[in-house]
Amino acid sequence: MATSSISGLASGLDTATIISQLMQIEATTQTRLKTRMTSVQSNVTTLQALNTKLAALATTAADLARPTALNPVSATSSSTSVTATAQAGAVPGTLAITVDATAQAHRLTFATTAALTDVVTGASTTVRLTDSAGATQDLDTGDGTLSGLMRALNASGTGVHASTLKLDDGTYRLRVESTATGADSTFTLTAEDGTDLLGGATVRAGTDAAITVGTDTVHSATNTFTGILPGVDVTLSPATPPGTAVELTVATDTTAAKASVKAMVDAVNAVLDDLASATRSNATSTSSSSSTTTSSTNRLAGDPVLRSVQYALTDAVFPTDGTSMSTVGVQVDRYGRLTFDEAAFDSAVASDPTAVTAAITGTTGFAARVQAAATSASDPIDGAITSTITSRKTQISRLQDSIDSWDDRLALRKETLTRQYTALETALSNLQSQSSWLSSQIASLSSSSSES
């Protein structure tokens, strides 16, 4: 229960102010704790921002580390029906091709039509599907109806797709087509005893795609010819007319590749700049709750964890095999930041595009090394900076406990002081009352003596 104060009632002193000033002195230790906690909270905010940027850098690096992410060559086609795609390792040049045929899937169109509810599987409700290798698969259609047959054929793993065409008389014609294209997509569909279903079927045999290159004819079970040139895939549209002449061109194109590498270098530099700012001595800090900026000794200055992250990111420039990234235009300057020489990159691509791709991408390339460094710092479970944040949050919790404990101690101290000064005022008031009474008594005695 709070003790009421009688400030200066008898003494004339501003005891409330005196108590307040004494409490400021008593609270010196708690004030230092609060200042310390504010500093640690500011450091946590800084570390969290760094961790977020490092996590984003790890994602960017992972994208660039993919083997297909960096392709300094491009492939174009003279026909809109034929597309060409250049992969890493493609060699610049041209290729003339003629489309002979596109790939088609094997298809059966059955002669007799039926209602969806008509039984069409013969004596049994089971049908037999036989693939090009002679392997058979017996399918239970349930009720043997046209609808049940379609459901059984479209079940996962049959390798065919069934559909029906509704005719003017309300009946349906069954069509069954292989889900794969090519000459090997052939299959048969019969009743369980081997007899024809629905009066037998008209067959459109599956065919391979074919193109002529010079005097050679090349076939593919699909409409894509993989590696027709080193690192080049060609895909035909199913509607490409036979006899279509196409010229394919593979050329060096560093625009997209340069942009990707430059973006990586810029992202690394942005993190390095933030790390340098965070570890700089006497850094200025800005309160997150206001626009107030103060200059103080930076408690993250020289932090070994942040220094190790800086080192790991700059060290990513140096391949483990002792070679140098300077050959592809990436270096570290005297200020510890990365630089990117686009002219050197272009020259390296012109000389050996495969080597440039290997230097940047893949499991041992520059991007993978940056990813490893960024992930090691920002991993949400055991990242170096993540662990530091966790440790400092624990420190904040301990500081808050101490501050709360001091709140109780200071409350008791203020109550004690208030009681002491109240007791003082009460005692002085009593003395003053006694003094007044004595003065009145003396005055009374003096008056009586005079009258006698």
Detailed description of the structure:
With 452 residues, the chain is of the alpha+beta class. Helix content is 43%, strand content 22%. It contains nine helices and 19 strands. The chain has helices at 15-26, 28-65, 146-153, 255-278, 304-315, 342-351, 353-360, 366-378, 384-451, and strands spanning 73-77, 82-86, 93-101, 107-110, 126-131, 136-140, 160-166, 172-178, 187-191, 201-204, 209-213, 216-220, 224-229, 232-236, 245-252, 284-286, 293-295, 330-332, 338-340. The strands form six sheets. The protein has a five-stranded antiparallel β-sheet with strand order 1-15-3-11-12, with no helix packed on it. It has a four-stranded antiparallel β-sheet with strand order 7-8-4-10, covered by helices on one side. Strands 2-14-13 form a three-stranded antiparallel β-sheet, with no helix packed on it. A hairpin with a 5-residue loop joins β7 and β8. The longest helix is centred in the last third of the chain and has 68 residues, at 384-451. The model is unreliable at 285-296 (pLDDT under 50).
